[in-house]
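Run log, item B.
One chain of 242 residues. Sequence copied directly from the ordering sheet:
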Amino acid sequence: MLLHTEVFGDGVPIVFLHTGLQTGMTDFEEQREYFQSEFKVILPDLRGHGKSTSQELSNYYEDSAADLKDTLDHLGVESAHIVGCSIGALVGLFFAKRFPEKVKTLTLSGMMAEKPANWSEIHLNMVEQQNSLLEDEQVGAYFEQLHGDGWREFINLAEEEDSYPFEETSDLGGLEMPTLFMVGEENANETRGVIIAPLLNKQIHVSVIPFAGHLVHSEQPEVYNQILKRFLKKYSVVGVES
């Protein structure tokens, strides 16, 4: 499916893939403002979010990667820098593995590269937190306004303990493009597996951001922006494509 997408600025394309229950316009706001003067900033609503309405969510990451491919083709974008956090990072990883020719660089955060030993406990806590959202009428009204009534179905996707694609996130050695992981020091589960990734693949770089956890791009936006910009400059010419 073609994703609802907002585009800002001109130049080398950079795609920001939002976190769960956000949209292209409600997430990565600081990054949109920072990068649109030098890049073409592309902000899709992922499948089942915002104006990208879909009831087909069962094969989420595979379908979302295909959605992004179709959308970039529709926009005439041959390749782009891909940046994602949390669910957006997982979609970005699936996309990069399946369509490497479309990816100039890959930047990921809010992702677990290895399955924690206490994953059952972590998953149970996540499900309890998500169920509390379903029971809160005010929160429900906000998400219905943002996504329509299908947002509850998206929440239910994470109920199964094997819903997190560890088989993909733990297999980083084959990434072909320059890749940057930015992880918050406060989230040990996300830092632990990623920190050894450069030993597996010389294309991978890791930056551990202090005073941040899962959402490093919003918790430490200035640090995030500076590191991301330096990474992009190392592997591309910033500015309008020739």
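Observations after the first pass:
- The longest strand covers residues 103-109.
- The beta strands are 5-8, 12-17, 39-44, 80-85, 103-109, 179-184, 204-209.
Flagged for discussion on Thursday.
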